[in-house]
Amino acid sequence: MQEISVEALKARLDKGEVLHLIDVREAWEYEEFNIGAVNFPLSAFMTFIPEMEDWKEEEIIIHCRSGVRSMQAVAILEQFGFTNAKNVPGGIEEWKSKCPK
């Protein structure tokens, strides 16, 4: 499974890169704090896969609170043939500790 660190992700966002960035936390978690990702909660993730079909060969970066749900989401995408999905280990918790605003 491919990964990207919170520091590398923040550096790319700070450069203004346009990324396929997905937050798989629940909506209430997303509302409390987010980094501008699209919110596709893992609890309903399977229903969003058709919306991502055009991204099968493109980089998709997925995060959650701690990295567990995002790891599951990456595994699901890989099963559906997505070739460049990346997990953010540590998720938002690591982001908050290493990348303060």
Structural commentary:
The chain is α/β, with parallel strands linked by helices. The chain is 39% helix and 15% strand. It contains 5 helices and 5 strands. It has helices at 6-14, 27-32, 45-48, 68-79, 91-98; strands spanning 2-3, 20-23, 38-39, 60-63, 85-87. It has a 5-stranded parallel sheet with strand order 1-5-4-2-3, with helices on one face. Helix 2 (27-32) links the parallel strand 2 and strand 3. The longest helix has 12 residues, at 68-79. It is globular, with a radius of gyration of 12 Å. The termini are far apart.
Unreliable stretches (pLDDT < 50, length at least 5) are none
Total number of beta strands: 5
Average pLDDT metric: 94
**What structural class should be given to the helix and strand makeup?**
alpha/beta
Strand portion: 5-15%
Q: Report the biggest beta sheet as strand number plus sense, adding barrel if it closes.
A: 5 strands, parallel
Helix percentage range: 25-40%
* Distinct helical segment count: 5
Elements, N to C (H/E):
EHEHEHEHEH
Map the helices and strands.
Blueprint: E1 2-3, H1 6-14, E2 20-23, H2 27-32, E3 38-39, H3 45-48, E4 60-63, H4 68-79, E5 85-87, H5 91-98
Parallel strand pairs: 1-5, 2-3, 2-4, 4-5
Give a short overview.
This protein has 101 residues and is α/β, with parallel strands linked by helices. It is built from five helices and five strands; from the N terminus they run E-H-E-H-E-H-E-H-E-H.
